[in-house]
Amino acid sequence: MSGAFPLFEESLRTSGLYPLTATGIAVFQINVGKLCNQTCRHCHVEAGPSRTETMSRETAELCLRALEQTSIPTVDITGGAPELNRNFRWLVERSRGLGRQVMDRTNLTVLLLKSQAGLAEFLAAHEVEIVASLPYFQEQQTDAQRGAGVFAASIEAIRKLNALGYGAPQSRLKLNLVYNPAGAFLPPAQHAIESDFRRELQRRYGVAFNTLYALTNVPIGRFKEFLEASGNYERYLQKLVGAYNPGAAAGVMCRYTLSVGWDGTLYDCDFNQMLDVTVDHGAPAHIRDFSAEMLNRRRIVTGQHCYACTAGAGSSCTGASVK
């Protein structure tokens, strides 16, 4: 980031939050690889059909062994399209068998692939919470970001999930949507965009969901390339720095999340993972060396990209961090 902007650590120090430390692990996030059936413009993972990075059964078993040592309540499975990993259903079954809540971060269209027959029914049978990315409630904006035909397929997938009970107000089957701005700007207030999504998706397509998460795009990966190509990189960074919120910084997801990479390397968050910035400051950096005691109180590795999670109402894997 340009020298014109203050270091993120300086902002933390001014807020009385330096050094930033973990408050425990409430979310055990497993990134099973970068293989995906889509190639999205904003993807910080740079996932796609040609990616070969994928978690092996051996590494998945190490994840479960680590989980067994703890009472971490939530297992968050992500990718890529996590469902394309051959160990995905095994991970779900084993995690649920340990009594943990399981979240699946899906792109929706994967549910319609022939190779994934019965996937939606499997998720419902195991009461997996679905966190589904949907850039917008209109076809043009969604397809521009994710590819032609993606919006129509996404709506078809949501209808399939709704038919199984996902998205109903009193149902145990939770369907949450994720919104990312398409350009170089911050997301609107989460409650406002959620209201728009709920109204328009019901009115236009007759589909329902539980909650919408509004996420701030982090200037890394493909989104960084887009910003640089459009001449908006410095301007976007200035917006993030100018919107720094100490309250959001205090509640950043890295403080209660541990991110496991496809090869078992440990990270403070999914964004650090994509930058290959591992857990540090004496904490174990691979799942084979997992220590709940050390990782629960580890010092978080931060950088300039962290301004994205601390801007405005904050941004986390479950939306705004300041309600």
Overview of the molecule:
Helices cover about 35% and strands about 10% of the residues. With about 325 residues, it is α/β, with parallel strands linked by helices. The chain has a single domain, classed as Aldolase class I (TIM Barrel), CATH 3.20.20.70. It is globular, with a radius of gyration of 19 Å. The two termini are about 30 Å apart.
Compose a concise summary of this entry:
The protein is an alpha/beta fold. The protein has helices at 8-14, 57-68, 88-97, 119-125, 139-146, 150-163, 190-205, 221-229, 233-242, 246-250, 270-274, 292-296, and strands spanning 27-31, 74-78, 101-106, 129-133, 175-179, 211-214, 257-260, 266-267.
Helices and strands in order:
Layout: H1 8-14, E1 27-31, H2 57-68, E2 74-78, H3 88-97, E3 101-106, H4 119-125, E4 129-133, H5 139-146, H6 150-163, E5 175-179, H7 190-205, E6 211-214, H8 221-229, H9 233-242, H10 246-250, E7 257-260, E8 266-267, H11 270-274, H12 292-296
Parallel strand pairs: 1-2, 1-7, 2-3, 3-4, 4-5, 5-6
Antiparallel strand pairs: 7-8
